[in-house]
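Batch manifest, entry 17 of 40.
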Amino acid sequence: MKKFFTKIQLASAAIATSLSLFLTTGASALTMKEGADSARGADQVADLFGATGIFTTVTNTLLFIVGAISVIMVVFGGLRYVISGGDSANITAAKNTILYAVVGLIVAMLAYAVINFVITSFAPGSLGGGGGTNV
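Output type: structure tokens
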């Protein structure tokens, strides 16, 4: 019986919370843009998309990191190849290291291309894209 009353109390608290969220007056309710603008600091970018947008900055940073790691791994694989001393197992491991580094770089570049395509195609006014539909 005690569990039943606990469940009723939780359900009524959830209903009261949801009703208070949905039944706000027009004067006190902010739009989503106004809420985001008020939460953003003075030094933060205003747009998610575009040349200075957050998505573009994060994508460029991650692509740089993946490129740097890929170059380091190619050099590491080359050193392993030179040091292998003719041992076929070490040569195969070195070749695999180089192959996986190059494949990783290609996948990162393709992901970058897909992200740029999506941002320019669907985000209005970003990176010169048409944006959205022509309705």
